[in-house]
Design brief:
The protein is mainly alpha-helical. It starts with a helix and ends in a 7-residue tail after the last helix.
């Protein structure tokens, strides 16, 4: 399989997993992983096909009806490296009362991840932040912005990528909704 076929297969698998799912703005969910792949390729200059496949598949396990099947599919179709990157980017399931602990564990895993994996996470966060203007839930918006500024801007600074882009995206949402810097 050549690189173009591999990328098309990653998009096809992501589209299958996300079929019927929508984003806050009502758009098909698949548009998000495609944008993350574009950010990785264009804004970050990533040309590694395995990493681009992982960008397309970064939410596939987390959002799948059958995560174990998707995990197997990714391993069989794309190999151990793509599966490992997607696994690092996958938040473990958590009940509402354990969400904070899950998020702390996930963030610690990201801090310890290879730079290329952190870059993909930042591409994901940048797309989500850019799309936050469409989020109808004001509490979710404020919480997401605070988390982005508290955890992901420092991660961007540590990684050395997307700092300005992420800062501009958070500022745009704050200005649009009249939010102060502390999430109020």
């Amino acid at each position: 399989m050549d690189d173009t076929q591999k990328l098309a297969l990653a998009v096809a698998l992501a589209a299958e997993v996300h079929r019927g799912q929508t984003r806050d703005e009502g758009a098909p969910y698949i548009e998000h992983p495609i944008r993350v792949g574009r950010i990785a390729a264009v804004e970050l200059g990533i040309g590694d096909v395995d990493l681009l496949c992982a960008a397309y598949l970064h939410d596939a396990i987390e959002d799948a009806e059958d995560p174990d099947k998707v995990r197997r599919d990714i391993g069989e179709l794309f190999g151990a490296r793509v599966l490992e990157v997607v696994e690092i980017l996958t938040k473990p399931a958590a009940t509402p009362e354990h969400r904070e602990a899950r998020n702390a564990t996930y963030h610690a895993r990201l801090l310890a991840a290879p730079r290329e994996v952190r870059m993909l996470k930042l591409a994901d966060r940048l797309d989500n932040t850019r799309c936050l203007i469409h989020c109808p839930d004001s509490k979710k918006r404020a919480r997401y912005l605070a988390e982005t500024e508290e955890k992901y801007l420092p991660l961007a600074e540590q990684t050395g990528v997307l700092v300005e882009e992420l800062s501009r995206a958070t500022e745009r949402v704050r200005e649009l909704y009249g939010l102060q810097g502390d999430g109020e």
